[in-house]
Amino acid sequence: MAEGFAKNGMEPIEFDDVRLALAGINLMLNNGFQESDMLFNKYRQYSPLMSAGASFVSTMHAVMTFEEEKISAAMQMLKSTENLCATDEGFLESIKSKLGSKPASKESAQLTVAERLERQIIIGDCQLYMAMLTFIKQELSAYVKGGWVLRKAWKIYNRAYREVTDLIAYCEWRTGQKVNGSQSSLDSLTDGESDSIPRQLPSKSQSSYEISREAAKSSVTTSASCENIPSKNQTWSGVSKSKSVAMAMATSTEDLPSADTLGRLLGAVSFGFGLFQLTISMIPPSLLKIVNMLGFRVERDIGLKCLKTASKSQDMKAPLATLSLLWYHLVATPFFALGSGGAEQGLCEAEKILRENEASYPTSALFLFFKGRLLRLRCQNEESLAVYNQALEACKDQREIQLLCVYEISWSQLLKLNFAEALSGFQRLKEESRWSQCYYAYLSAICYGAQGKIPEARDMFKQVPKFAQKKRNPLELYTVRKAQQFLKAGKKNQTREYVMLLALEVLYLWRALPTCDTDDLQKMLQECGKVTDQSLISMGFLIEGSIHSILGNRDEAMTCFEAALAKSSSPHQEQHVAPFACYELGVLYLEKAETHDQGKALLIKAKDGYKDYDFENRLRIRVHAVLRHMKDIPVEQPEPDEDKEVEDDD
Question: Which portions of the sequence form the region Disordered (predicted)?
Answer without folding.
Answer: 179-209
